Amino acid sequence: MSLEVxxxxxxxxxxxxxxxxxxxxxxxxCKTTRITDQQLLEDALVAMGATELSVAEGxxxxxxxxxxxxxxxxxxxxxxxxxxxxxxxxxxxxxxxxSVGALLQQRTIESLxxxxxEMGMVLVSQTNANGEVQLVFEEAT
Length: 141
Prior knowledge:
alpha+beta, 5-stranded antiparallel beta sheet, DUF1257 domain-containing protein
């Protein structure tokens, strides 16, 4: 048996092991989010004041009011952290959850306004101080 035949599979296995180790280290101490849509994640981070976002397929990094942040898609959802600050990670993810909720609420209301117009109606929306939105459909006159 040739030495090459033995070394090639060992090299492939070593490279695969190194890649796996790097991907595990990438999100060490990351916490799970409920976010599956990368564009929604980016929009929510910008709405929270994140800057200098670096975006790649399945990965978002940047600066936020909480510090340097890293998000990585693992499976179907994104995991995130504040680099080198576990305490701030919880605060970041709580604020991110609120930001995502507000964005989704805004997008839903915009969609309902368009749908109401298609149906010949007017959608009147009122937002309370606590963020609660009341919607009323009225016939267009």
